[in-house]
Amino acid sequence: KAGVTQTPRYLIKTRGQQVTLSCSPISGHRSVSWYQQTPGQGLQFLFEYFSETQRNKGNFPGRFSGRQFSNSRSEMNVSTLELGDSALYLCASSFGGRSTEAFFGQGTRLTVV
Amino acid sequence: AQTVTQSQPEMSVQEAETVTLSCTYDTSENNYYLFWYKQPPSRQMILVIRQEAYKQQNATENRFSVNFQKAAKSFSLKISDSQLGDTAMYFCAFMKHLFQGGSEKLVFGKGTKLTVNP
Asked: A10-13 and A108-112: which strand pairing?
């Protein structure tokens, strides 16, 4: 079956702009989580959505937001981009419930110039 | 809050040899899961092995095994018969167990870059 698909793979944006990243989970998975990966901070949890509801949120400013649609696809939005937002953004999906195995996409590499 | 520490930023091993990656964690939880993820240059995180804290038996997946010491809060990964394809970043991760179900966030260590040399 198809894995977790993230689009686009690469993105270059200018400081001050906004960006939307997309994640399509594995079919049947209802939980989608987002992580930011940078060389300095490592992997940090952004938020998790389950059945269109945000269930968990990390310590990121309000410029970072997300949503999940009825087909479990998720989008992440970053407004007023800063240079420090340059990172690899990873999406992970799971069944939710008692499942603990998360499957990751290949990520979106965002560069802010 | 939980923390995960990987004290070896980089390691190298010869093909066919055995290597052990270290991980320690800090938590006040009694029920949780521990994971090792592999991230090759393709960037996709791949689950290598998982351990439930309530299980005393160490998890094993083919050439990969763990040494889980709950009292010491230690969770090391042993890779036997190392292969060139094992070259990657390896991340240790922690997740709280939710008795009522649901997914919890993964807390990752900073990673260990493993290079397998021919």
From this structure: parallel
